[in-house]
Amino acid sequence: MSVSANRRSFILGAGTLGAATLISLPLHAPLHAQGLGDLLGRGGGGGLGLSSLLGKATDSALDKLAVPGAFYGDEDVRIGLPGLGGGGGGGIFGSILGGASRLGILDGITREINDAAGVAAGEAKPIFRDAIDDLSFGDAPGIIRENDGGTQYLRSSANDRLHSRLEPLVDSALDRAGVYKTFDGLAEKHSFIRRVGLNRESINRSVTDQGLDGIFSYIGSEERAFRKNPLGGLLGN
To answer: Which Pfam families match (predicted)?
Structure first.
């Protein structure tokens, strides 16, 4: 075997060992400063630390949700009309909108909203990467123990900032998809649209809320999958 082949074997073996260490770290294992830095992916090697793992999970989740029809096609993350479950308020407003939906007044707009959310997800990678880069991972031992600990920590630490930065992307996507124009046209024909508080701001906020829920659901799934099969995630990039 050549020297270069030996070197490639060593690098691959080291990468696998590093990933396995992250995934199967015993709960009682001491986390020394240098080892913790490696696990977080903050050192010069970068590679398979928690920061890198979370970045890969986020990129993969956003790629999947950016596929046309992905949000609408998955009932677990499908975005509903404001006031109809999901991020809506329910109550009398929900009853009014529910009746309108059954009458076909709002046919098609749910799909448009979900498609717009998918477009926003496809544009959101830099926002999530910035948030990940800003995390301190001060609670790293607890994060490492949880199969989706990185996702939980990202949401608890950066949810408001991610929401505020995602909102303009959602607003632009909804505008380009013609959702606001559709609602304006419906409001001219059906006064209940305005009465239930459906306007550009409330629609954008509801879609962003529900879209972020779906994104984090997918990030958590990707993180769990990568932890379960770290070498597969490594070779897939």
So the answer is: DUF4197
Q: How confident is the model at residue 190 (pLDDT cuts 50, 70, 90)?
A: confident
* Residues sharing a CB contact under 8 Å with residue 184, sequence separation 6 or more, in sequence order: none
* Straight-line distance from the first to the last Cα atom of the chain, in angstroms, rounded to the nearest whole number: 26
**Cα distance between residue 177 and residue 172, in whole Å:** 9
Give yes or no for a contact between 22 and 230, defined as CB atoms under 8 angstroms apart.
Answer: yes
Q: What angle do CA 211, 88, 190 make, to 5 degrees?
A: 110
- How many Å apart are CA 44 and CA 237, to the nearest integer? 19
Check: CB of residue 75 under 8 Å from CB of residue 49.
Answer: no
Q: Where are the beta strands (DSSP E) in 53-197?
A: none
Q: How far apart are CA 146 and CA 231, in angstroms?
A: 19
pLDDT per position as a tens digit, 75-116: 999 998 775 444 333 333 344 444 444 445 565 788 899 999
Residue ranges making up the domain that contains 106: 3-235
**CA nearest 48: which of 194, 237, 230, 222?**
230
Q: Are 50 and 150 in contact (CB under 8 A)?
A: yes
Dihedral angle over CA of 121, 127, 130, 135, nearest 10: -70
Report how many domains make up the chain: 1
